[in-house]
Write a structure and sequence with these properties.
alpha/beta; six-stranded mixed sheet; ClpP/crotonase-like_dom_sf; hydrolase; branched-chain amino acid catabolism
Length: 423
């Protein structure tokens, strides 16, 4: 908006020029003093007019830039009978913002009913990331000033996650690079998720005072044993083929083969799920990189199942400390750095999600997201410490697990009544 109030204030101070104008209007010779005043007045008006026009022009340009930028942050293309989505913010590691969501959602709905579209492929530009997460810095900035983005972002993101999870056509996510948080939500609920040696997966939300959202409460408890709870609480990172071995990705294909794989998928004519699976399987068989390498957590999986089998986060911490092994000690140290409130919310979320549908989980997670947006919550402090000031020293409140009451956790799960997520 152009700020006209300062211009109005300047014009209101011009009563000293009135007499000079009247003198000129009478037809009498204008005194040199009056002439100077008229000249000064003219310059003043001209200056303000130019300034006002410049402000308007700047505003138009900014609007055009925002519109243009939003249009290029996601590329939506029809290639043959395939709808191809390219997340196109490589400098930001393709971090997901609300403009991108608003471009993808209607296009996905359109392709879902389009008889000329047989398959949807989603990928990231730049070679480093599929999508490194949601643009949570913008979300917390909005939350601090009461901007509706704090509600809109989570609501629209979860609706998009549900659309992917219930998509009626084959959906293939090429997660070639960093895939965290919001990027997981764009991929994990789809039928096919193709990891490469460049894939780096994590749900690191407990480190910033949040929780593993975007349907984390649905897919994490469905991983083997207590692996999902372990990943949710610790934010442990999985790389390359391990992303598939954990069950997050459906296939593993070497990064250099991804372009050829995409072309073959695009060229398929009216493919069935089985047709696509055969193509993916064939590329996986041709990808021998790290094939003999054991799962990074293979020797710890029994320990994880044993130590993370508890009725509380405090119980897990006790188990880890009592075990005393280097692995257990490292996980105890990791948990000690996380937001105590986030750990307890996440524990309850994962336990509840085991028996919920994806839709029920997303409704639950929207409630949790809004609890985290309350001013003074750990989410703001976590984003400050990790993303803004980058001092990596968040001051959590409460600062210990023991100080987090059961009621404060349960309150986060309460219905928002008419403000609940509608799917």
């Amino acid at each position: 908006m152009v700020h006209t109030h300062s211009i109005d204030a300047n014009l209101s101070n011009q009563s000293g020029y009135t007499a000079a104008f009247k003198e000129a209007q009478t037809g009498r010779s204008v005194s040199s003093q009056a002439a100077q005043k008229i000249q000064a007045m003219s310059k003043h008006i001209l200056s303000n007019t130019i300034r006002l026009r410049s402000l308007c022009r700047l505003q138009i340009l900014q609007g055009q830039m925002m519109s243009s930028q939003a249009g290029t942050e996601v590329l939506l293309e029809k290639v043959g009978n395939a709808g191809v989505i390219t997340l196109n913010r490589p400098k930001a590691l393709n971090a997901l913002n609300v403009n991108m969501i608003r471009l993808m959602y209607p296009q996905l709905k359109k392709w879902e009913t389009d008889k000329e579209t047989d398959i949807v492929i989603i990928k990231g530009a730049g070679g480093k990331a599929f999508c490194a997460g949601g643009d949570i810095r913008a979300v917390t900035e909005a939350g601090m000033v009461g901007d509706p983005l704090a509600k809109d972002f989570f609501r629209e993101e979860y609706i998009l996650n549900n659309t992917i999870g219930t998509y009626q056509k084959p959906y293939v996510a090429l997660i070639d690079g960093i895939t965290m948080g919001g990027g997981v939500g764009l991929s994990v609920h789809g039928r096919f998720r193709v990891a490469t040696e460049k894939t780096l997966f994590a749900m690191p939300e407990t480190a910033i005072g949040l929780f593993p959202d975007v349907g984390g409460g649905y897919f994490l408890p469905r991983l083997q044993g207590q692996l999902g709870l372990f990943l949710a609480l610790t934010g442990f990172r999985l790389k390359g083929r391990d992303v598939q071995k954990a069950g997050v990705a459906s296939h593993f294909v070497e990064s250099q083969k991804i372009a050829a794989l995409e072309k073959e998928l695009v060229d398929l004519k009216a493919p069935s799920i089985e047709d696509i699976a055969r193509v993916l399987d064939s590329y996986q068989k041709k990808s021998s990189l790290d094939a003999e390498k054991p799962f990074v957590l293979e020797k710890h999986i029994d320990v994880i199942d044993k130590l993370f089998q508890s009725s509380s986060v405090e119980g897990i911490v006790c188990n880890l400390k009592a075990d005393g092994s280097p692995f257990a000690q490292k996980q105890a140290e990791t948990l000690a750095k996380m937001s105590p409130m986030s750990l307890k919310i996440t524990f309850k979320q994962i336990q509840a999600g085991r028996t919920m549908t994806l839709q029920e989980v997303l409704v639950m997670e929207y409630r949790l997201s809004q609890a985290c947006m309350v001013k003074g919550s750990d989410f703001y402090e976590g984003v400050r410490a990790v993303l803004v000031d980058k001092d990596q020293s968040p001051k959590w409140n409460p600062s210990t697990l023991e100080e987090v009451s059961d009621k404060s956790v349960e309150d986060c799960f309460l219905s928002l009544e008419e403000h609940d997520l509608k799917l």
